[in-house]
Every structure is written in structure tokens, then in C-alpha cells.
Known about the structure:
Helix content: over 70%
Number of helices: 4
Shape: elongated
Mean pLDDT: 85
Low-confidence stretches: none
Coiled coil: 61-88
Order of helices and strands: HHHH
Keywords: Coiled coil
Strand content: under 5%
Number of strands: 0
Amino acid sequence: MTPSIEERRRVSDKLAELVTSTNVNWxxxxxxxxxxxRDVTVLYLAGLIDPFAWKVTVADNERLLDRCRELEAxxxxxxxxxxxxxxx
Length: 88
């Protein structure tokens, strides 16, 4: 599964924190990323830089747009009810 934007941001923050450490080693990287070993860590990082990640961005944006439409419709219903003096 391709990582979400939020997961990418979290990992980016964790890696940025490691920059301040001197002599970063594998165990520190495992702890920062929550991975059990080298193979998994390298595969995890490769997944984060997947060139097809734009597909996840598009999917995330579509979900956000759908949610905005839902909220807009709810807001319109509430405004109409308020205008009529009806409580929700």
C-alpha cells in the first residue's frame, strides 16, 4: 500500500529530527520509523519515495473535496433551518 500524505509528513519530521543526532545508526533509524530491521526499513523508505505517489495525493484530495461538499450541504441545511426558526 502506498503511504498517505500524512504518513509521509510524519516520517519526514522523524528523519529531520535525526539530522541533529551525530552518527545516526540503524537502530536509531528503526526507532524513528517504527521498523524492525534493515530490509523492512529500506523497503519502507522506498515506498515513501514511490514515483506513483501522486495517485495517493489525488485520492486524498478527492476525499477532501467530497467531505467539503458534505459539509457545505449540511451548512446550507442548517442555514435554511435557522432562517425558518427551526432548531436542528
